[in-house]
Amino acid sequence: MSSTPSPRPFPGPVLVLAAMPEESAPLHARLDAATTLEVPFTGGVSAVRGSLHGIDTVVVTTGIGIAAATAAATWGILATSPALVLAAGSCGGLAADVEVGTLIVGESFTYSIADATAFGYVPGQVPGGPERFEAVPAWVDAAERAALRADADGDGRGVRRGLMLSGDAFVTADIAAPMRERFRAALSADMETTASARTAEALGVPFVALRAVSDLCGPAAGQQFHLELDVVAEISARAVEELARDLAA
């Protein structure tokens, strides 16, 4: 990934990746002059291109899971040559102080169920790969500023930045407990973000994530543990819109 954000005026499109149509819908609604792009996939993958506060933006609905995210992100980057790749949508909350609706700003990323520790690798590290995929700090700062504004303008459910996990397993309470033990700093879990981060790094494009917590992975007594997907998708989309507003400034 490049070490600094791209200069103004913003030089290329933003590629926004969301797993499900429900997560893409509030992003589509914000695009001006939206057009559907042809994609080389079957099975629900789609791409819509338009303008978000004057910023050329492509929203790709990738499908769920590591393989789906990798394939769609690879195509999106090669087809549109973005200046930034951004993961949006929902995630599960892992950290004890994360609540449903909290906006998670991805600072680093790893695989939740990858385990090559028998060969000397750290939990989550795939052999030959880094311990963590790291977002460019300046982009994390920019995403956090956008998230804080979106949170203040919404219902104030909070913003956290840090480690996000991804893997092809839905994180139930039974899975969450050992996962928290292995990844003490992890804020959230989903099934796509790390794969997208890895793809962006391999293809030399900056990457950051703005996903909102839809459910808690093993909530404590008394905690609200679930928000409807459309509500969470709207929270994430507001943050994406605020980031685009900054890029257009």
Rg from C-alpha positions? 17 Å
* CATH class assignment: Alpha Beta
What is the number of strand segments? 10
Note the beta-strand portion.
25-35%
- Helix residue percentage: 25-40%
CATH fourth-tier homologous superfamily: Nucleoside phosphorylase domain
The neighbouring-strand order within the major sheet is 5-9-8-6-10
Identify the quaternary structure here.
single chain
Distance between the termini: 23 Å
Query: Mean pLDDT, as a whole number?
Result: 91
Return the string of H and E elements: EHEEEHEEEHEHEHEH
CATH topology: Rossmann fold
Helix segment count? 6
Quickly give the CATH architecture: 3-Layer(aba) Sandwich
Low-confidence stretches: 1-7
Question: Strand pairing plus helix content: what structural class?
Answer: alpha/beta
How many separate structural domains? 1
Major beta-sheet overview:
5 strands, mixed, barrel
Shape: globular
Polypeptide structure, described:
By secondary structure, the protein is an alpha/beta fold. A 5-stranded mixed beta barrel has the order 5-9-8-6-10. The protein has one domain: Nucleoside phosphorylase domain (Rossmann fold), CATH 3.40.50.1580. The chain has helices at 21-30, 66-80, 137-153, 173-182, 193-202, 229-248; strands at residues 14-18, 32-37, 46-52, 55-61, 84-93, 103-111, 133-134, 159-166, 186-190, 207-216. The radius of gyration is 17 Å and the shape is globular.
